[in-house]
Amino acid sequence: MTGRTVLGITALCIAATLASAASLVDAYDFDNPALEARYRTLIAELRCPKCLNVNIAGSDAPIASDLRRAVRRMLEEGRSDQEILAHLQDRYGDFILYNPPLSPATVLLWATPAILVLVGLLVLRRLGSRRDAVELTEDERARLDALGAEDP
Amino acid sequence: MTRARALLIVPLAVFVGIVVLLYSGFGLGRADLHPSALIDKPFPDFELPTLAGEPPRRSRDDLVGEVRLVNVWATWCPTCAAEHDELARITGETGIGIVGVNYKDDPNAARAWLAERGDPYLFHIIDARGDLGVDLGVYGAPETFIVDAAGVIRFKQVGAVTADTWRDSMAPVVASLQAAAP
Questions:
Q1: Beta strands at B97-103 and B68-73: parallel, antiparallel or unpaired
Q2: B41/A contact by beta carbon, under 8 A
Q3: Average pLDDT over residues A102-126
Q4: At the fourth CATH level, which superfamily is domain B31-180?
Q5: Which of B38, B104, B140 is closest, CB to CB, to A91?
Q6: pLDDT, tens digit, 9 for 90 and up, residues A65-109
């Protein structure tokens, strides 16, 4: 394959991806660009209740389309982002939020990264202290010096 | 040295633990994904056309006053057909009124469906676009709500109402609500 063919195929793939991504989202016309920006942020933050791990911006499930319409309606009614999220959370539970609140059910979700970092630090400290304790014999030191001397 | 060797098993043990955890996840039902949504909250306001056409529209006022079931259904939903006879049996035996929400459906197909299978419902409202569905937190059909006499949602069944779910989880709720009502 020539470089040109590869380039052509790549361009086609990118175009196809963009086209399918665009076709998923309903063409809602907002008069107000600020409102449209908030709409895009909200539909990216809301999870489709039917499809486990897709936001409602990226899902073509009918329920996701209904939810986008509901978000748009509430935006045009002048509701705040907080009110819109709360409205949908009341109906679909924490499940619908990709940014879930801290609660007994989600505490592990939030704490796990911190716990992993802590465990990692502990392991690093132990490995570090063990390395310090290594003492070289005379022979080993001589060999090390010899190896070091070969370096440019 | 033996301690270091014992430590080598730790990653394997962690891996096996994760596999067991994730594998057991396959067995968990999906019905409890949205557990508390809208329970103990008032049934949302609505004013929608009826399937029968007479009266042309029904509102929330037509729903409240007695303990009722609200059943979200559609002709495109096979599970709805499966639970239809059970709903007819429940309303026949207990006298509880069932309100149908014909969800994102073709009204003509819905009327034909009811003509064929019988219509045990009090009345049906048409939620053609699914707006009431969103207000109710519906994410599929069938879903069935128990609404108390004051119009507050007390229970939500996602998926078919079967003889078992009725006996074990729904009938006790209805009985306690009817006992509490004046």
A1: parallel
A2: yes
A3: 89
A4: Glutaredoxin (3.40.30.10)
A5: B38
A6: 999 999 999 999 999 999 999 999 889 888 888 887 788 877 888
Task: Give me the architecture of the A27-100 domain, per CATH.
Answer: Orthogonal Bundle (1.10)
The domain segmentation of chain A, as residue ranges, is 27-100, 102-152
* Residues of chain B with C-beta less than 8 angstroms from the C-beta of A63: 130, 133, 139-140
Query: Judged by CB atoms within 8 Å, which residues 54-93 of B form the interface with A?
Result: none
Domain ranges of chain B: 31-180
CA dist., res. B8 & res. B150, Å (int): 63
User: Which among A46, A47, A66 is the top mutation candidate for probing chain B, defined by the most B β-carbons within 10 Å of its own β-carbon?
Assistant: A66
* Helices and strands, number each (H, E), in chain B: 6, 7
- For residues B155 and B170, the answer to whether their CB atoms sit within 8 Å is yes
Instruction: Give the model confidence (pLDDT) of B133-147 as tens digits.
Output: 999 999 888 999 999
Give the per-residue pLDDT at A22: 46
CA distance B13 to B17: 6
Cα separation, B91 vs B105, whole angstroms: 23
Q: How confident is the model at residue A150 (pLDDT cuts 50, 70, 90)?
A: low
Distance CA B83, CA B159 (A): 9
Q: What is the distance between the alpha carbons of residues B58 and B74, in angstroms, rounded to a whole number?
A: 18
Average pLDDT of the residues in B5-31 = 84
Contacts of A50 in chain B (CB under 8 A): 139-140
Say if residues A52 and A62 touch (Cβ distance below 8 Å).
no
> Is B33 near chain A, with CB under 8 Å?
yes
Whole-number Å distance between alpha carbons of B138 and A92: 8
